[in-house]
Design a protein that fits this description.
This protein is an alpha/beta fold. Helix content is about 25%, strand content about 30%. Strands 1-4-5-6-7-8 form a six-stranded mixed beta sheet. The longest helix has 15 residues.
């Protein structure tokens, strides 16, 4: 599946909401992710867990924010590229959140020329940073995201570092 705004709107309309709001939010149980859309681009918020991916056996993240590519561009060499923000809202188990992000990205398999891909986790409690950074699962996710010119970050309670 192409990870585009149009694909999710077409195939998962009940799971996808799009807007040009300046602040887009996803939250649960006191944890909140905020995407600051200062450029007021079109952004689709996709509920992944129990909507796009309904299997209870499959590990998946909570949300996907897609910064939509401009729809009409005159340049014939223009290649559309969405920015993808995979979001997991978690209690305190960062390693499990990393697994959820990794498996969700691998599930959708965005093409390498797709655009940037980011992994963000919002925790209710911060883990010990030293023990996390060298964990094999974290290293694997960071390596995967670097292929897409993206990164992995996490924060506690509220994550509001992304600006487009």
């Amino acid at each position: 599946m192409n990870c585009t705004c149009q694909e999710f709107e077409k195939h998962y309309p009940d799971c996808t909401s799009c807007s040009e709001d300046k602040r887009l939010k996803a939250g649960e149980n006191g944890r909140k992710y905020i995407l600051n859309n200062l450029s007021q681009r079109r952004v689709c918020k996709v509920r992944v867990d129990d909507c796009v991916i309904t299997s209870q056996e499959e590990c998946k993240c909570d949300y996907l924010f897609i910064v939509c590519s401009p729809e009409q561009v005159e340049d014939e060499n223009f290649k559309p590229s969405e920015q993808l923000y995979f979001i997991e809202l978690k209690g305190k188990d960062l390693i499990h959140a990393v697994e959820q992000l990794t498996q969700t990205i691998e599930h959708f398999k965005p093409p390498m020329n797709h655009g940037q891909v980011f992994g963000q986790v919002v925790l209710s409690k911060s883990p010990s940073v030293k023990s996390i950074e060298n964990d094999a699962k974290v290293v694997r996710l960071k390596k995967l995201l670097r292929k897409y010119q993206g990164n992995f970050e996490y924060g506690s309670r509220q994550y509001e570092k992304d600006f487009i």
